[in-house]
Amino acid sequence: MKVGFVGLGNMGNPMATNLVKAGHQLTVHDLRREAATNLLEMGAEWADTPRDCVPGSEVVFTSLPAPRDVEAVVLGENGILEGAAAGDVYMDLSTNSPTMIRRIHDVCAEQGVNVLDSPVSGGVYGAAAATLAVMVGGDEAIFNRMKPTLDAIGSHVVYCGPIGNGMVCKICNNTLGMGIGVLMTEVLTLGVKAGVDLAVLADVIANSSGGNRRLVEKFPRYLFKGNFEPGFATALAAKDVRLGTDLAREYGMPMELANLVDQKHVEALHRGWGPEDSDAVSKLQEEKAGIQLRLPEA
Ligand code: NAD
Question: Is it true that the peptide bond before 231 is cis, omega within 30 degrees of 0?
Fold first, then answer.
C-alpha cells in the first residue's frame, strides 16, 4: 500500500520504519529533513510539504507534537487537505485533543476526505517493537480496511467508536499514567526514607496490588538509571495531562487529583525540563525528600 507519513520524531520514525518493513511504499515529510535519513535509505520517498505526501497515498498518517501542529499540517497552507481528494483517508497517530480532531474531521468531511484518530501507547520501545496499543475512532468500515496496515505498528489495535473516541481513550490513559508516576515517586521516596532498600521496595510493589507498568517498564529505563534523555518528553507529558484536565472542564467533570498532577508538570516545565524525559517530573519529589531513586542495575 502507498502510505504518506508526516512527523518522523521519537514515535513517528520507528512507526514509519515498521510500515516500510511490512512492505508499504512510504512518502515522508518532517520539518527536519534529517529525521527521514534512515527511511530514505530504506526506499521511502521525500516530500517537501505535507500536501505532497497525499497524491497516490491510500492513507496519510501524522505523528506530531501538539494539537496546533496537527491543525497546521492538515488544514494549513500546503497541508494535507490541500492535496486530498474525495475518498482519501487521513489518520492522526498523535496524542491530540478530541475536540480538535472532531473539528478537523468535520472540515475534511466537507470535501469528502475521511479522518480517523488513532493515537498510540507503548512508548518508543513499543514503537520500535511494533507492540503499540492503537486506539481508533471514526468510520468503522474504514477502520476495518486500515486494520492490516495498523497491525504493522501495533499488537493491540482497537476500534473505540466514533471520531475522537481514540483520543479520549488515550488522554484518559495518559492522565492516569502521569498521575501514577507522581504518586509512585512519593511512595518510593517514603519507603526509602523509612529504611527499605529501593530494589526491595520496587520488587514488592511490582508484585503486589500497587504494581503497574510505569514501575516495571518505564522507571527502570529512565528514572532509576538517572537517564532523562527522551523517550517521551516532559513537554509532551504536560500537554497530555492538560488535554485531560481541559477535557474534564469541557464536560464539567471534577478532576481534583488530575489538576494536581497537571501543576506538577507545569512546575517541571518552569524548571526547564520540558525537553527531558517525562520521568524528570519525579525530580521535584526527589529534591523535597532529599532522596534519589537510582537503581543503575535495573
Ligand atoms: P517528537 O517531538 O519526537 O516528534 C515530532 C516530530 O514532528 C518531530 O520530528 C518534528 O520535527 C515534527 N514536526 C513538528 N511540527 C511539524 C510540522 N509542522 N510539519 C512537519 N513535521 C513537524 O514527538 P514524539 O515523541 O514522536 O511524539 C509524537 C506524538 O506521539 C505526540 O503527540 C506524543 O504525545 C505522542 N506519543 C508519544 C510517545 C512517546 O513515548 N514519545 C508515546 C505515545 C504517543
Answer: yes
Q: What does the H/E/C string look like for 189-225?
A: HHHHHCCCCHHHHHHHHHCCCCCCHHHHHHCCCCHHH
pLDDT at residue 110 greater than cutoff 80: yes
Please name the residue whose Cα sits nearest to atom 1 of ligand 1: 9
What mean pLDDT, rounded, does the chain reach?
98
Q: What is the pLDDT of residue 131?
A: 98
Average pLDDT over residues 47-51: 98
The CA 110 to ligand 1 mean position distance, Å, reads 27
pLDDT at 297: 82
pLDDT per position as a tens digit, 218-243: 999 999 999 999 999 999 999 999 99
pLDDT at 296 over 90: no
- Is residue 8 over pLDDT 90? yes
- Rounded Cα gap, residues 185 and 284, in angstroms: 9
Determine what percent of the chain falls in helix, strand and coil, rounding each to the nearest 5: 50, 15, 35
Q: How many CB atoms lie within 10 A of CB 81?
A: 21
Which residue has the least CA distance to atom 43 on ligand 1?
A: 121
Q: What is the pTM of this model?
A: 0.97
C-alpha cell at 58: 491510500
- Asked if 170 is an active-site residue, the reply is yes
| Ligand 1 contact, 174 CB (< 6 A) | no
Backbone angle region of 154, left / alpha / beta, with phi > 0 → left and psi within -120 to 50 → alpha: beta
SS3 state of residue 8? coil
Ligand 1, atom nearest to 66 Cα:
32
The catalytic residue among 170, 218, 264, 283 is: 170
Query: How distant, in Å, are the alpha carbons of 37, 122, 210 from that of 133?
Result: 26, 6, 22
